From TrEMBL, chains A, B:
Upper classification of the organism: Bacteria, Pseudomonadati, Pseudomonadota, Alphaproteobacteria, Sphingomonadales
Protein name from the UniProt record: Alpha/beta hydrolase
Keywords: Hydrolase, Signal
Keyword check for Signal: yes
Pfam family of the protein (one): Abhydrolase_3
Domain Alpha/beta hydrolase fold-3 residue range list: 143-356
Length: 381, 381
């Protein structure tokens, strides 16, 4: 491409963008040091672009999204405060992190369910069925939930919060399982456990009638498990849901890759942005469960294999613009589409990683409806 | 929700997020002043959260997305430099902004087409048909493109760049029109022009066989025009594409609302982030074409009316994580889904407003395929 520079042309395309950058506004937007620099050289832009495209972004203040409901604005604010207070931590109690206890109270009040402890193929789990009964059209169907928790905890907390709304609102039987995690276990122990449970479910259910979904590590594990099914010669399930996650891994530093690793740290989790990226081996360690994994291995990061993605069933992605998996989710969705698979992406503006764990928020309820409608439509009739 | 604070629990959910915020990394990530503050008070987080949820984000450096192709990395870098140089502007030449000239060269080389000047219902336009002929299955179909340019220019530049790839790769006849814009005209002049042309097309084509799409202002105009069709009692077209845009407007300051207004300014357009938002009336003016519009009027911002959205045909949204319309696009998509309409969202990580104007980039080509496949599938058979 030619080195063509054309500010006025650029302004004419979207006039106000040019104006936002105008000096009249600079006094409002810049920290004192950047402003001093800008004043020395009137045309200096406090945003600097390196030759390799790296953008140096000045400090900024970002309000809650104008698109959020009042409940979600409060929820986001509380979440950011929760993530920032590192002084008086409380360990999870009975597998339910303290921060999630109010969500659990809401879930138990909102979703009347019959809860049963189960063991399938030697793997412990919980079965949820609606108190009013499984919907007639779902009698031959089942959903398998793979819970979040960074492959190192949050059972049964996350497992219950992810299963209850879908079982209740969808009229489904949902099974959630306590797959093996770190610190005791490593990849691919969880994939093996999911495959064992799935193999057992296939004795009762047609593959097209089985849906599989999860959030966060559980969302990643959905992709990993389907890659494992393929390797084992098992048929694909009828539909899949990858929530709060994607199907990529990054080696250089922890994260799923892409823009979101930088852009959502502060606004999604109240963490300082990581910049510049730490050199290899100097950053924080990756997830313990994945510590020896080749990040390009399709069994761990299926987005690396178009051939594999082409075999995946219709897959629903749910993420948010403040979620650190945003880039991985939208990229994985795009790679599935490019590979010829069916994939459906839904992004909530202003919300963060795992937002849908709190059922008291309208945006979470909207997400549950998207999930239920998806499985209703895509699973076998 | 309870005021519950639980750092350790939060860490256990996704251990590395806690570690990213750890002090060992702070020396790498913080500007000197923030670091000094952090050292004074060892636990101080340079990210500050206000009581209303506003996040104060320290300066950061964001590299190009790891998910981009090499071509797109170069494209983004060049785009950021183009947007930043405000000294030696060049006005559009014959309606083609200087920055887009290389894209036009690529488009003319890549897409063999028959180009004809047309006038439909008194509105000037250009018709494109593939040199090798319209695909047999598209003989009874037509696509209407509404070009970008901030409702104030970029005809025929944007019009041609948006029409050529779809006509050529899809085997479609594409008409693009020179609808009325600012500075001479105001809302709803463009909607009226689109309706006049559409009414004329309906004499030859069934509504289900007509697709309508656009990028940037043209994407906004797709929503506005369909709202206008509804008001006029015209049938909906078979399918719609809202690219580089959404269906919302914001009053407080220019923009489409949501997170993207803040988060993408620097990394998408090399503009300083707008913060704090200017008080009412003190920010830069809104788009001239829309200056007297009620931002909640569904004829201008259809996302405000679920009843209207429910009548819309299947609609494709295309955006990027560095695009200032990101929030508006994902929110509008979500509102359509919530209203019971059919909508399909595709987001390119690391790319900016209107990225698909450059046909030489693989990501643009992937987007064209998504567009063509969508119209192939959704238009009448």
């Amino acid at each position: 491409m030619k080195e063509s520079r054309t500010p006025r042309a650029a302004k004419s395309l979207f006039p106000r963008l040019g104006m936002i950058a105008g000096t009249s506004l600079m006094a409002l937007v810049l920290p004192a040091t950047a402003l001093a620099q800008a004043e020395e050289k009137p045309d200096a832009n406090p945003v600097q672009i390196d030759a390799d495209g790296t953008v140096h972004v000045p400090a900024m203040s970002v309000p809650v999204s104008s698109f959020l409901t009042d409940e979600a604005k409060k929820y986001l604010t509380q979440h950011l405060h929760n993530m920032q207070d590192r002084e008086s931590g409380t360990l999870p109690e009975n597998g339910v992190p303290f921060v999630m206890k109010p969500y659990m109270v809401s879930a138990k009040a909102m979703f009347p369910l019959v809860r049963e402890e189960v063991t399938i193929a030697g793997v412990a789990g919980i079965s949820y069925t609606p108190t009013q009964g499984i919907k007639p059209e779902n009698r031959n169907r089942i959903l398998l939930n793979l819970h979040g928790g960074g492959f190192g905890g949050c059972y049964p907390g996350c497992a219950e919060l992810e299963s209850m709304p879908i079982a209740s609102l969808g009229g489904y039987k949902v099974i959630t399982i306590d797959y093996r995690q770190a610190p005791e276990h490593r990849f691919p122990a969880a994939s093996e456990d999911v495959a064992s449970v799935y193999r057992e479910l296939l004795k009762t259910y047609k593959p097209a009638d089985i849906g599989i979904y999860g959030c966060s590590a559980g969302g990643m594990l959905v992709g990993m498990a389907m890659a494992w099914f393929d390797k084992e010669g098992l048929p694909m399930p009828g539909a899949a849901g990858i929530f709060c996650a994607g199907m990529t891994l990054e080696k250089k530093f922890p994260g799923f890759g892409g823009d979101a690793h930088y852009m959502t740290a502060a606004v999604g989790e109240a963490n300082p942005p990581v910049e510049p990226p730490p050199p290899l081996g100097k950053g924080p360690p990756p997830l313990q469960y994945l510590e020896n994994v080749d990040v390009k291995d399709p069994l761990a990061a299926p987005a690396n294999s178009p051939e594999l993605l082409a075999k995946f069933p219709p897959t629903l992605f749910i993420t948010g613009t403040r979620a650190f998996e945003l880039s991985s989710a939208v990229y994985s969705h795009g790679q599935m589409v490019k590979a010829g698979a069916e994939a459906d992406l839904h992004v909530w503006d202003g919300l963060f990683h795992g937002f849908l764990n709190n059922p008291a928020v309208p945006e979470s309820q909207d997400a549950y409806k998207v999930i239920v409608d998806f499985f209703d439509k895509k699973l076998g009739k």
